[in-house]
Amino acid sequence: MQYSEIMVRYGELSTKGKNRKDFIRQLGRNVRHSLHEFEGLDIRAQYDRLHVALNGNDSTKVIERLKGVFGIENFSPVIKVEKDFEAVKKTALEMIQAQYQPGMTFKINTRRQDHQFEYDTNQINDKLGGHILRNVPGIDVKMKNPDITLRVEVRLNGIFLSSETIPGAGGLPVGTGGKATMMLSGGIDSPVAAYLGMKRGVKLDMVHFFSPPYTSEQALAKAKELTSKIAGYAGSINFIQVPFTKVQETIKEKVPEGYLMTIQRRMMLKITAAITVARGDKGVFTGESLGQVASQTLESMMAINDVTTLPVLRPLVSMDKTEIIKIAEKIDTYDLSIMPFEDCCTIFTPPAPKTRPDLEKTRNFEKLIDVDGLMQEALDGIEVTVIRPGENFMNQQEDVFAELL
After folding, report:
1. Model pLDDT for residues 337-359, shown as the tens digit of each residue
2. 184 labelled as ligand-binding?
3. 5-167 adopts what CATH topology?
């Protein structure tokens, strides 16, 4: 069917009291950013609902994008008709017939903003219900939990009908929970951690470490495309790429093998913390889960956290790999995450890293490298890219490779 608008209902933010206006305003911004590629949309975030006037755009594509915007409880595609009751009856019947399966039940739910309209709420319910009963053989009315609810809104500028309710992403609008950085690798875990952080309203800047020539341009493109997938929940994300080759080479040369990973992770967190402070963010998110690999024991976390007083948040800390993979599949990052491009977390990995590093030894081994100099060189080389939903970086790399051939 050719829908004229999508009516969005707010989720958890509707309980936020005095902050409600700010939450709604932020959700409106996020929806506009998320739908940036659709021309001609009219998006109005009002007190009780958010309305997306399609103005000829493909409703299916807009609906798919809206499913990923946090702060939306559910939404309904809507058809607008003029205030001609015969037109209302015709459209209502078409909507019911499009969804009806044998044995289904329905009800009519009318809201009337325009009290000058010729029929009141009860009359509209009765007349439309009778019309559908006469023209859809086998359908029955059920007032509680029907299979189909046809909603009719009589507004000042027309009559709006909807018969389908699509679940939204829930949570809080991204940006209402403050700002933080996210240490994004190319693996399965960190995109899931970013998704969970954003679901609580946190706006994230992605920090990605890359180490050419040990890591490839494809690995960098993969991290950017993962960010593009996550950006659907936020509208847009700042992607901060940090050159890390010299830091890793120096650590490999000067630090005992068992502590390579610990010192490397400390340097990553030091640099991320510096970026966090410089950008006015309030914390650091990571994709660590307790006990999955050697760097994710409590002793390792203590040794790594030692470098900053900022909050280090680990949304996955109590999840096992199966739970994490399930979310990665849900948010469509899993297949991309398992593509076999090396990231800097997997190069120079020692055969037997310390699973329970000693904090004092860690501090002493770190003194073997020029921490401040290496940090500054890395910070001087960062690049920031604004990434939006739907951008495809892996295809760009394939095109470049094809040109070289």
Report:
1. 999 887 777 777 777 778 889 99
2. yes
3. VC0802-like (3.30.2130)
